[in-house]
Write a structure and sequence with these properties.
seven-stranded parallel β-sheet, binds zinc ion, alpha/beta
């Protein structure tokens, strides 16, 4: 099945494209199921992000109405309403309230900020890496990821090893094997909590040149019996809608997974990964 479970449009303040444009592009590309996962929080004037319950709920409801209007035009493509929640200890209460008040199909939980510093772009990203050696920078990120999983107010962990996006620039090539115990700890918690992992293919076109997470992390996930796996491109504009998707599916297969997970109103169902079509 051709699906995209991580995508942003103009309802994310870092995204572009109307709901019609994104759905049209997805249909042209042959997608059978897509899930909008716009950010709950909004970009603030200082380059940081802010979260407001009323405002966020309004944006998701507006998108939900658009999806309901557009869906009948695409009987062969299911259009879902999801979200990407950014974990920060001070936001947990608001995010819980948001989760309770919007009828999401699936929610991604993501770490973009560690101890107040951005790790995936933005004004404080350089400082996070400059002030820490590789062990500390990656180790602390995975600790915060485990904290987010302890909270667990979402369905799927987003871009599990996102810290490598800028990490590779500061410390060179990333080897997940070097952080095996730091990586297995959050994976074990995910299994206890029934949370899934996503294959986020934006890393394929970014400096790491591989999905988030890497092949080794997915192998660990398989060994730890993580049973829910989604795949998404984290596209922020319609033109990059399917970025890295084929590479991501390949990594997923190579890691031993044979199924992906689909959601509906936060209920999940696993389906077989489509067999690779041989090019004539
Ligand atoms: Zn993200
Ligand atoms: Zn995203």
């Amino acid at each position: 099945m051709r699906v995209n479970y991580h995508l942003h449009n103009q309802y994310s303040s870092d995204g572009r494209g109307t709901t019609e444009e994104v759905c049209g592009r997805a249909f042209e590309l042959g997608f059978e199921e897509i899930c909008f996962t716009n950010h709950a929080e909004m970009l603030a004037d200082d380059g940081g992000w802010a979260l407001d319950l009323v405002e966020a709920r309004q944006r998701y409801e507006n998108l939900q109405h658009e999806i309901e209007r557009i869906q009948p035009e695409y009987p062969d493509m299911r259009i879902l309403l999801g979200a990407e929640f950014e974990y920060r200890p001070e936001w947990v209460e608001t995010l819980d309230a948001l989760l309770d008040s919007v009828d999401f199909d699936m929610v991604i939980g993501s770490v973009h900020v560690v101890d107040g510093e951005q790790v995936s772009g933005g004004p404080t990203t350089g400082a996070y890496f400059e002030d820490r050696d590789v062990t500390e920078a990656y180790g602390r990120y995975f600790e915060v990821l485990a904290e987010m999983i302890d909270w667990g107010g979402f369905d799927v962990v987003g871009h599990f090893d996102l810290v490598k996006r800028f990490g590779v620039k500061h410390y060179g090539q990333y080897d997940a094997g070097q952080f095996e115990s730091e990586i297995r700890a959050p994976l074990k918690k995910m299994v206890e909590k029934g949370l899934g992992i996503e294959v986020n293919t934006s890393g394929v076109v970014q400096p790491p040149a591989e999905p988030y997470p890497s092949l080794d992390v997915l192998r660990f996930a398989k060994e730890e019996h993580v049973a829910t796996v989604t795949i998404g491109t984290d596209s922020h504009v319609p033109t990059s809608f399917d970025q890295g998707l084929e590479a991501g599916e390949l990594v997923l297969r190579r890691s031993g997974f044979s199924e992906i997970t689909l959601f509906s109103h936060r209920i999940r169902k696993n389906v077989a990964l489509t067999p690779i079509e041989e090019e004539a």
